[in-house]
Specification:
The structure is a single chain. The protein is about 25% helix and about 30% strand. The chain is built from five helices and 13 strands. The protein is elongated and about 70 Å long. It starts with a strand and ends with a helix.
Length: about 220
Amino acid sequence: MMHDATEFFKDTKADTKQLISFGFAQEGQKYLYRQSILDGVFILYVWVDEESVFTNIIDAQSKTEYCLHNIPGADGKFIGRVRTTYEQILKNIRDKCFSPHVFKTQVAADVISFVRERFGGQLEFLWDKAPTAAILRHKISHKWYALFMKIPARKLGIDDEAYIEILNLKVKSAIIAKIVDKIKFFPAYHMNKHNWITVNLNKIDDISEIIPLISESYSSVS
């Protein structure tokens, strides 16, 4: 019985080219990787598809499944070795074959594509304690000009417990005063409210609504 390891890869997305380069073989809509571990005692299987990751450890001699490493509370030196080896391999796969995929709204994807093509920028996840926050940095000055975050809607005063995706941008205070409506545009969350504005990406219909703000923010930190 396969073990669902999808949670270990939460907020990431597989790069199929990197999977193949790593040693995965495509089998229909899935990618399979196998590796002998612990001096050939076991064989680890890892299956990856678009939405999930499953694993299995099989005893090389008896061909039976080994599952103690996935049982909470199971202890012992040998189990610890298996668990450590297993987790190290999964981490290596995640680091080399998966990229961050925290922000899932279409507008967020469009913004990321836009800045990559226009300014040559990539998301930077700087804080281990804030895995749902990432910055965009000016190509020359290296200063931040945008901050993506995923936060509870109530943090912006919205009566909703759901999480939303936001984008903080640096713009002129006169513009902030004109466009803040507390639906799409808010006083900056977690930043200086005189120079920054928060965009609720869940309420933006098309990236064209915020391209001028993104461009101004980029120019403002040059």
